[in-house]
Amino acid sequence: MVEDQVDRFFEVLADPTRRQVVRLLGEGPQRAGQLAAATGSSSPAMSRHLRILLSAGLVADERGPDDARVRIFRLNPEPVVAVQAWLDQVQAHWRDQLGSFKRHVEQKESS
């Protein structure tokens, strides 16, 4: 399950515009029009990007309090937590491997 989330995360963020959208939303919630203007994308293109980000769970949306037609987009931290857990596992594996290699080299040097 976590592996699927990690795969989807990297697949979705392979697109530079979507990475830029995630960076922008990291600064705070924004409307689609603001994101389109900031990335230099057309409204239909931004709509497609946001649909993909929403389906992957990286982004959530809510309706504006004054106008239900206005959607505000924000980051969803859950997929990032799953990726961080995966990265922690990879890092722990490499730390163990490098520790074993270091002990091996030190043992050879002392022989």
Automatic annotation (TrEMBL):
SMART domains: HTH_ARSR
Pfam families noted in UniProt: HTH_5 (PF01022)
Signal sequence region: none
The protein's name in its UniProt record: DNA-binding transcriptional ArsR family regulator
SUPFAM superfamilies in UniProt: Winged helix' DNA-binding domain (SSF46785)
Biological source species: Kribbella steppae
Stretches assigned to the HTH arsR-type domain: 1-98
One Gene Ontology molecular-function label: DNA-binding transcription factor activity
Protein keywords: DNA-binding
CDD domains with a match to the protein in the record: HTH_ARSR
NCBIfam families: HTH_metalloreg
